[in-house]
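Appendix B, example 12.
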Amino acid sequence: MNETMWMTRRAVVLGLAASTAFGRHALAQDLTTVAVTKDPTCGCCEKWIAHLRESGFTVAVTEGPVNPLKVRLGVPRDLASCHTAQVGGYVIEGHVPAGAIKRLFAEKPQGTGLAVPGMPSGSPGMDVEGMEPDTYDVVLFGPVVRIMFARYRGSEPL
C-alpha cells in the first residue's frame, strides 16, 4: 500500500466520522431548540423562556399572533395558554416545566404534544412572590390521546 492511498483512506474515514458526528450534533440541536411564539407584551412568557434556557434549551422567539398557530398545530381550546412552542416535532402549550419536556424526548410517546392549561400559580414563568404554588397536570394530547403525562406543584414533579 503506498502513502497516497493510505492518506486517501484516512481522509475518507475521518470524513465519514466527522459527518456522522456533525449529523448527530445537528439532530441533538434540533431536539433542544424550542421555537416559541408569544404575544409581544407577555411577561410570564419571558420568564418561561428564561426557565427553558436555564434548563439547557436553546430558545428562538417569534412575537406575533398566537391563536392562529394554536389552531394550525391542533391545540384544543380547553388546553390553551398564553404561548405556544414547537420542539423536536412536538407542540408545547403553556407553562410546561423543562423536566416534562426532557421526559417527553426520553419516552417519545405518540401524541401532538404537552400542555399546561391556563396559567397555574408557581408553574415556570408564573412564580408570584407570596402565593402558594398550584398543583397542576401536564397533559399529553393528540387527535386520539389525552392523558395526564405528569403532575407538578410549582416547578416540582409529584
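The two ends are 64 Å apart (CA to CA). Strands lie at 33-38, 58-63, 84-87, 90-94, 113-116, 135-141, 146-153, 156-157.
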